[in-house]
Structures are given as C-alpha cells and as structure tokens.
C-alpha cells in the first residue's frame, strides 16, 4: 500500500505512540525486566502491531484523493453555479493566482537550491493546490466534505 511507504504521515515515529505501561519502580518485576532487556520492556509499552496497522490504514484512507476531486480554485462541475459575472471573474482570477503559486512552488523544489528538500531529498509538496488521484502528499480539496 502506498501509505505505508509514505515518508510523512505513515512513519510511526512522526506521531506519538501510546504508552501502555508506567515507568517501572525500582525493585519491581517490571524494573528487573527493563534492566535485563530494555528493548523488550520498551516494546511492551508502545502501541501493538495490530493497532498501529489500523492507525496507518485510517491515515492512508483519509489521505487519498478521489479521481473526481475538485481542488481549490478549479472550475466546478456546473459552469452555471452563479450568474454573477463579478463572482465568476473573481473566481477565475483566484484560480489563475493559485496556478501561479503552484508554478513557483514547483520551482522551489529544485534540489540545486540549498535547504529546499532536506537531507532525505524529500520535497515539501503539501501546499501544492492540485494533485493526481491517490495518495500524492499534495493537493488542497475545494471542500473538506469531498
């Protein structure tokens, strides 16, 4: 699945884990276990594999774009959504401005420019207005309900 290889949201260390145990008190059986094998003790405190899989699956499902997604500033399916010519002109101007911004953002990901992608060579694209279908790590939907 694409979401599990996503460099942002699905990397489990990018979000807090759920601790299932308190730090053990000195002299307790849990403390002795921690001293013997700190890794095993740590693994017993974090979110179990099944719960982590559910969390990652939900993140992926909520992060996907539909094939018919309408992005901010894009023309609606119904070209007659308003008869107000001033509103239509303002909407067209807004859409054009977003296209200009997206072009500037694309240039900003040039790896020859210092400090644009970080040491992992992963460009920041989350504010790009448009996206392709699926999990793309970019795109601003026109509505949160779509």
UniProtKB/TrEMBL annotation:
It comes from Trifolium medium. Keywords: Dioxygenase, Metal-binding, Oxidoreductase. It comes from the Eukaryota. GO terms for biological process: lipid oxidation. Residues 1-146 form the Lipoxygenase domain. One of its GO terms (molecular function) is metal ion binding. This is Seed linoleate 9S-lipoxygenase. The keyword Cell wall biogenesis/degradation does not apply.
């Amino acid at each position: 699945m694409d979401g599990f290889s996503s460099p942002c949201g699905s990397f489990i260390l990018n979000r807090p884990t759920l601790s299932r145990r308190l730090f053990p008190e000195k002299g307790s059986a849990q403390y002795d276990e921690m001293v013997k094998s700190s890794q095993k003790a740590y693994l017993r405190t974090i979110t179990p594999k099944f719960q982590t899989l559910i969390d990652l699956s939900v993140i992926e499902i909520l992060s996907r774009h539909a094939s018919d997604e309408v992005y901010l500033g894009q023309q609606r399916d119904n070209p007659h959504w308003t008869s107000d010519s001033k509103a239509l002109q303002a909407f067209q101007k807004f859409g054009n401005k977003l296209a200009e911004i997206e072009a500037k953002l694309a240039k900003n990901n040039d790896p020859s420019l210092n400090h644009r992608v970080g040491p992992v060579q992963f460009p920041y694209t989350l504010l790009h207005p448009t996206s392709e279908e699926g999990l793309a790590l970019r795109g601003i939907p026109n509505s949160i309900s779509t």
